[in-house]
Design brief:
By secondary structure, the protein is of the alpha/beta class. It is built from 7 helices and 8 strands; from the N terminus they run αβαβαβαβαβββαβα.
Length: 264
């Protein structure tokens, strides 16, 4: 999910047979209105995960005006860049002041990028923008690369206590990744929604549902609603769907999408 990436061409149209039923059930009480919580039943709360790769004031202001919970991924130049950008710092502070989390983008080249470079990017995010929450892109999903990510996160946490991490393998990873750091999050799906099948989100994820996020690309508004329904029915932490490139701005249906990021 590098800054230059755009939603790719749609793939297979295969979907779970029960998806529409799950969507109707999950969305019945959460679209734009108040909560319909049942007394004594634990609520499932969704957040949105927004790749804010746009260098535009308007969508940043719209994010700051969003009252529902959002996690915003900041990406200056496939990372933090090498010098401070006052405009970008202002936007980051604006959405943080609104109560949203901001994650700094770094990438690992699927476990091939030198660890020192990744750690240096994290340090630059902290120094230039005060960001200690990181979105780690191009993350591997295989068991053989677990030692790389374990060492990376141990070193990152030792350099500064309290850092938080989200890995993006874009698919369900080896389950060992869920135990690499306290509170680690993982983006377990990042593809055109037309490629979604039950096999993409296997039942083995259920034990780690609160750490899982999904992202639907090349998604219509109907696709977005289905992605939200899947995330809610599985008890995942959050979701995002878009019909635009990450650098273009917020999705055309942002008003509808953010209304689904509620407890219900």
């Amino acid at each position: 999910m590098a800054k230059h990436d755009e939603p790719s061409t749609c793939l297979s149209s295969d979907r779970r047979a029960w998806l529409l039923q799950a969507g109707a059930l999950a969305l019945a009480g959460c679209g734009g209105g108040g909560s319909t919580a049942t007394p004594g039943v634990a609520q499932v709360c969704l957040s949105t995960l927004v790749p804010a790769y746009f260098y535009k004031a308007a969508p940043w202001a719209e994010l700051a005006a969003t009252r529902q919970s959002a996690v915003v991924i900041a990406n200056v130049s496939n990372g933090p860049g090498s010098k401070p950008d006052a405009q970008y710092l202002g936007w980051i502070n604006q959405v943080r002041a609104a109560g949203h989390r901001v994650k700094g983008y770094v990438y690992t080249g699927y476990g091939q990028r030198p660890m020192a470079e990744v750690l240096a990017d994290m340090q630059t995010w902290t120094q230039l923008y005060g960001v200690d929450d990181f979105f780690i892109d191009e993350a591997s999903a295989t068991s053989g690369d677990v030692p790389y990510y374990r060492s990376l996160l141990v070193s990152a946490s030792a350099a500064r206590a309290g850092r938080r991490f989200m890995l993006n393998p874009g698919m369900a990873p080896d389950l060992a990744y869920f135990g690499l750091a306290p509170g680690i999050d993982i983006l377990v799906f990042e593809n055109p929604w037309s490629s979604y099948t039950s096999a993409r989100l296997p039942a083995t994820l259920d034990a780690f549902a609160s750490q899982c996020w999904i992202m639907a690309l090349s998604a219509s508004e109907a696709d977005m609603r289905q992605a939200a329904a899947v995330a809610r029915s599985r008890g995942f932490a959050g979701f995002f769907a878009t019909d635009l490139a990450f650098t273009s701005g917020l999705p055309s249906y942002w008003a509808q999408e953010k209304s689904l990021a509620v407890c219900g």
